[in-house]
Amino acid sequence: MFRVRLNARRATLVAAIAAAFPALPTYALTLSAEADAKTSQVVVQGDKPSSLPTEIPTTIEGIQAKEIERNINAIDAEDALKYLPSLLVRKRYVGDYNHAVLATRASGTGNSARSMVYADGILLSNLLGNGATFTPRWGLVTPEEIERVDVLYGPFSAAYPGNSVGAVVDYRTRMPKAFEAHAKVLGFSENFQLYGTDKTYSGKQLSASLGNRQGDFSWWLNLNQLDSDGHPIAFTNKLMSAGVTSSAGKVVTGAVAGKNPQNQDWWILGATGQYHTIQDHAKVKLAYDFSPTLHAAYTFGYWRNKMDSGVESYLRDASGNPVVSGDVNIKGKKYTLSATDMSNSQNRLEHLSHGLNLKSSSKGVFDWEVAASLYDYNKDIARSPLVAIPTADSGGAGRITDQSGTGWNTLALKGIWRPDTRHTVEFGYQREAYHLKTLVSDTGNWISGEAEKQFSAFRGDTSLQSLYAQDAWRITPHWKTIIGVRAEQWKADNGALANASSTLNFASRSENFVSPKAAIAYASGGDWTYKASLGRAVRMPTVSELYQGTISNTTIVNNDPNLKPEKSWTTEWSAERSLHDGRGLLRTTLFHERTRDALYSQTNTLVTPNVTNIQNVDDIRTTGLEIAFADNDVLLPGLDISASLTYADSVIVRNDKFPASVNKRQPRIPDWRANLLLSYRVTDKFSSSLGIRYSGKQYSALDNSDVNADTYFGFSDFLVADLRLRYQVARQWSAAIGIDNLNNKKYWAFHPYTQRSVVAELKFDF
């Protein structure tokens, strides 16, 4: 079990001030000081696997199951992170399985490979690529099985690769101590009004859990089904300037006038990407205690998704029939709708995960751990049409994208050596391997046809082998330091791109890097603790960034297989004050991060013709300030408050290939962020919470040319409020109702976020 010194349940921060190098986002909550040496740390105890080191060299945030249940309308696992400082999950609708990317202080929602997500030590982050479509596999965790979530900010622990530069999220799920059973029924509904769409989209979630401990053996089973009818996330559009003055084309009505992010006039012609997704989840966990100090655990996870997307054309002909393709005439100008401008799609996915852990916990001179995991795209099929279709039941030519066989595996050998009471040395060997396999085929029937002629294919492997060591040294009762180093060997091989008739193979690559880490903490002896942390992170290019190219007019257009890795130095200085004998915390943090060779898709304007693909951006610097506060029983008994405010100045300071981006803000990093969560326990049975989330101005384009944020493709600021009421009906029964986006804010992250939604649930616990 985790023991978080300083009442983890209420901790909403830690502290910081002053940055020295490039710093990192640091989260501050749930940390405290030990009585004899008030140096912030979290201690991992017991027989349950965790990816976190024994002693954490910087701040960590945590939230427990009871807090999630009381304060958050949690339908998906990522909802647990909703109010944590400086974090944002780009969740567009309930069950968003392919775009819910985690953003941190200096990493936006386009940088999915700059954070890591684990569940019981199993890697859920999809590090096959970097971007919106490589979201963590949140579906392998359901809210009701979460025991707690911890977030470690930044690359300050040698136990993690460079992908930890933003944050490490560790979910720990339940294991029973006695027989227990749980069941939950949940429903949600959203009234969505945007452009020409005015509809209600609803869904439901059913879940059941069962577990027991019998002597040295314990087991846990969790089943969950989510049936979500999401709002449209994409919109067919045409620039008004693209129209040709003419009387030709079918005269239509219904087009909605607007402006795109560059403030150009355009027509919105229809809504697409209206996903109906049914997701089935199963989790089996087995654990056995060979002795009081030797524990083994195995986890099997199963996730299946059936997705069908819908189309709604706003265009109507003279007879009132919908128009989805061909030449159309809007206000005296002709526009051409291609066959795929308004089209449906399908996904049929079946993913498996395995995790095995063997761990000693003697708390003596030496302990060890062996952990291995496997994530497998057992089935991963996407279908899309090449012909205009008025309904989802129509067949016709199309393409099938098959990623079956893609996946990753991990191995970790860890040791902990305690030579005396002043030193705790952690060391180990880690290996991660990623395999990407994509085959795109033509088919005569996009709905039910078999794969026929190959259109394109992509494949590649990367692996990372690492040795690390770090020593937590308690110098005096008031001073503590942690010094570590990580040595890594990265390899990329078997890379290839192919079109229908030819294949382009790439040479293997191998590179070595060393990343030092350091942190120091001073406890004044009173209520103040001061900390400083420094760490280097090397974020390797992913398989997709290296090899996932495109086919244009049957010609292979590839990304750069010689991309350099991102190299970041991050630092932070922190000051935290314990409030009311440890019941609350106040933290201030100054952070700075410098990243060289950042990986972004951009246009190289130095060559003719210009080339647009994944490229290295020379230098990005981020400096910021975060203030966080948490306290319980504020003003009146039962009222808990947590709040955070973050300012980030993130600027591209050098980019030789695209000079127009220099001195512009890094994409998708807002200038201001803020969270406020008020939780009030009216009685022992009745609780209420009000959450407020704010995100300020940001851009999506490297040159910040997207000045109109409140539109499709835009990235807007937002201020939204969430409400939750929960009542313990009886000892085993509870009910809750909530409203997300209470103020019905219409806001964007390229796609529209969810508008006002009502959530209701009924839960049974035995």
| Topology, number of strands | 43
What is the end-to-end distance?
A: 22 Å
What is the number of helical segments per DSSP (H or I, 4+ residues)?
2
State the assembly state of the protein chains. Answer: single chain
Shape: globular
Q: Largest sheet, described in full?
A: 26 strands, antiparallel
Helical coverage, percent range:
under 10%
- Strand coverage percent: over 45%
Low-confidence stretches: 1-49
Structural class: mainly beta
Summarize model confidence as the mean pLDDT: 90
Structure notes:
With 766 residues, the chain is mainly β. The protein is built from 2 helices and 43 strands. The protein has a 26-stranded antiparallel β-sheet that branches. A 5-stranded mixed β-sheet has the order 3-8-9-6-7. The longest helix has 7 residues, at 65-71. The two termini are 22 Å apart. Residues 1-49 have low confidence and may be disordered. Residues 1-28 form the signal peptide. This is TonB-dependent receptor. Residues 293-742 form the TonB-dependent receptor-like beta-barrel domain. Residues 55-168 form the TonB-dependent receptor plug domain. It is a multi-pass membrane protein.
